[in-house]
Write a structure and sequence with these properties.
It comes from Spirosoma foliorum. The protein is an alpha/beta fold. It is 37% helix and 23% strand.
């Protein structure tokens, strides 16, 4: 796994990890699973990742990378917010996936750190 920095945000009694990396942090399913396990064992159950830290394959639902990784976060009971601009993705299935994920609330696709932090408090 590439070098990463974890910034801890505090919202009431929630401890939120913001994962920062200059490189693509999640290139494949194993990277995503390793990251989820690492953060879980550090005591985080709310995580923010920037979309620029995730390989483009994640956003191509046919690859099943997103499904596998998000299922792992869910298995660890980690709420996840992915921060970025998702308007650049033209895929209807991805946009539907983002809409449904945001509606359920365990996985959120948001445009800012502030929005991510507020979603965890809901």
């Amino acid at each position: 796994m590439e070098e990463l920095q974890i910034i801890t945000h505090q919202q009431n009694d929630l401890k939120i990890a913001e994962v920062i990396s200059r490189d693509i942090l999640i290139k494949n399913i194993d990277d995503g699973k390793d990251l989820a396990a690492n953060l879980y064992y550090q005591g985080f159950d709310n995580v923010i990742i920037h979309n620029k830290s995730i390989a483009p394959d994640f956003f191509d639902l046919k690859t099943k990378v997103a499904g596998e990784i998000l299922q792992t976060f869910s298995n660890f009971r980690i709420k996840l917010a992915i921060v970025g601009d998702f308007t650049t993705y033209a895929s209807k299935s991805l946009n539907d996936f983002i809409f449904e994920s945001n509606k359920m609330g365990r996985i959120n696709f948001v445009s800012s750190i502030e929005e991510a932090v507020s979603k965890f408090g809901q």
